[in-house]
Amino acid sequence: MYIWVIMDVENLNTQLLSQLTIPTAGFEGGVAEPLPVYGVLLQNKTLMASTVKQGVPYTFYEVVRSFMPFTEIEWADILNVSTKSLQRFKQMNKIFKSNQSEKIMQMAEVTHHGLETFGDLGRFTQWLQTPNYALGNVTPKSMLANAYGKDLVMAEIHRINYGILS
Length: 166
Prior knowledge:
Elements: H1 2-17, E1 21-23, E2 32-34, H2 38-43, H3 45-54, H4 58-66, H5 72-79, H6 83-92, H7 98-118, H8 121-128, H9 140-143, H10 147-161
Antiparallel strand pairs: 1-2
């Protein structure tokens, strides 16, 4: 099982790494350079804030989307855009606005921690789609539409990771 955890997380990290550049931290107008390790981004709130501020490209969103069990319509609702706008973003490889980038980054964070905790994408997806007593008998997936729900889901993932089951 441990090998599968590493493979899924590394697969996510590698795919996201290839799609993201961030400004050099601490330098005004710093040169964009590739992020050395994707996991570093999710453990550093300053880098996350900087990345969200500049916006994430559609290709970054595509990678995050491929690891989450949301339909295009659900993603459009989460990002507060139409499905037609998402299609235009894809055609033009547009950069998402800051508020949309923040939602995408939140989903990347949940995905990263979920894969570490559950060991593979299948088990993580199953958990996201199963009603959870600790979350009021709703699915974790349904809680991810806003920051408060995301925080509750992340807290539950951390409890599971430490063996504290509700």
